[in-house]
From TrEMBL:
<feature type="active site" description="Proton acceptor; specific for L-alanine">
    <location>
        <position position="266"/>
    </location>
</feature>
<comment type="function">
    <text>Catalyzes the interconversion of L-alanine and D-alanine. May also act on other amino acids.</text>
</comment>
<dbReference type="InterPro" id="IPR011079">
    <property type="entry name" value="Ala_racemase_C"/>
</dbReference>
<feature type="binding site">
    <location>
        <position position="313"/>
    </location>
    <ligand>
        <name>substrate</name>
    </ligand>
</feature>
<feature type="domain" description="Alanine racemase C-terminal">
    <location>
        <begin position="245"/>
        <end position="370"/>
    </location>
</feature>
<protein>
    <recommendedName>
        <fullName>Alanine racemase</fullName>
        <ecNumber>5.1.1.1</ecNumber>
    </recommendedName>
</protein>
<dbReference type="GO" id="GO:0030632">
    <property type="term" value="P:D-alanine biosynthetic process"/>
</dbReference>
<feature type="binding site">
    <location>
        <position position="135"/>
    </location>
    <ligand>
        <name>substrate</name>
    </ligand>
</feature>
<dbReference type="GO" id="GO:0005829">
    <property type="term" value="C:cytosol"/>
</dbReference>
<dbReference type="GO" id="GO:0030170">
    <property type="term" value="F:pyridoxal phosphate binding"/>
</dbReference>
<feature type="modified residue" description="N6-(pyridoxal phosphate)lysine">
    <location>
        <position position="39"/>
    </location>
</feature>
<dbReference type="Pfam" id="PF00842">
    <property type="entry name" value="Ala_racemase_C"/>
</dbReference>
<dbReference type="InterPro" id="IPR001608">
    <property type="entry name" value="Ala_racemase_N"/>
</dbReference>
<keyword id="KW-0413">Isomerase</keyword>
<comment type="similarity">
    <text>Belongs to the alanine racemase family.</text>
</comment>
<dbReference type="InterPro" id="IPR029066">
    <property type="entry name" value="PLP-binding_barrel"/>
</dbReference>
<dbReference type="InterPro" id="IPR000821">
    <property type="entry name" value="Ala_racemase"/>
</dbReference>
Amino acid sequence: METYYRDTWVEIQLDAIKHNIQSLNDYLPDKTGIYAVVKANGYGHGDIQVAKTALASGAQALAVSLLDEALKLRKAGISAPILVLGWVRPCDAPLAAAHNIMLTFFQEEWLQQVKQYKFKERLTLHMKWDTGMGRIGVRTIEEMDALLTELDDPRLHLQGVFTHFASADECNLAHYTKQVERFHVLLQAFCRRWKYPVELHTGNSAASMRFPEQMHHKVRFGIGMYGLPPSDVVKDLQLIQLQPAFSLHSKLIHVKKVEKGESISYGATYTTEENEWIGTVPLGYADGWMRKLQGIDVLINGKRMPIVGRICMDQLMVKLDQFYPIGTKVTFIGKQGDDIIKVEEIARYADTINYEITCMISYRVPRVYVENDAVVQVDHVTSY
Ligand code: PMH
């Protein structure tokens, strides 16, 4: 097993991933399967381990954003279907075909270019419909028809059709409803023209949890698989009991008593109000713990203590309530004693969403995978 030489690590509870996949599977109608969305290194959790766990727990397929991410999973020996959700260069389509990786398409010229390349293996494709996200996809029946006409090459296989919701996590569902309606208009026209079976998938975590009966053949389950709510609105609906998989920890590497009136860290933005115990922790903005998090709490000995002074590239300082020995555990995200710091608390403080918090913890922090309370795998910088 890989090892690492720093006292800062992310812990990923694979049992939580398993629980979340199984819970969604139980909740969805039998006809609806699951794409485990493991793009962006599994939302920062580690793509290979999460993918393997999700597939072993009931997901049938994987979704990523980039061809590079799909190839990484294939290289790790994963043979399950993988769909690339983003745009891939036409010149790289033969590589996708060679590795049996499914691509997303929505442009006529993209298909025309792909067809000009030499490749033997069948290229499996999913057509993207833009029903109101405004990002990628065809928006009209005419555009869709033009794409279907270009699928006249026996090497191209249309396996699926999908769209993506922009606001299924919100209180006001007007935009969601408009997208569903547009999807059905396009679907009717599609079915008149295309007589072969295709897989339909529309829902992200929010839509699959709120509208399980509307979910067609598959859902694309991302944030919920990691045990995090898509939004406060969805969390408050309490549809599925999700278990967060991600926690972030470090240890005190230096502890000292600082005289009243002394300053701490760059810019001298914090001055001790009395004689204070100050601890130094080896986590910084190069690890993803951004400077904006100055002032937020950490957990030490089950108690909350604030980060004081500017967060440096590799280290930060915490105001302690008493002396603690070097090596004392510091929890930034997760449970310690009776208290817990949730990803959502960090997101609120940083004025962002939970998705961004787990994604921002950088490659420099080792990922330690835990199953049944035992460490089963470690990924760190030398194994990338
Ligand atoms: N499908 C597509 C096309 C996506 O882009 C995403 C997430 C998902 C499914 C999964 O969504 P969920 O995590 O809410 O379940 N994409 C993004 C994104 O582009 N920015 O934030 C989340």
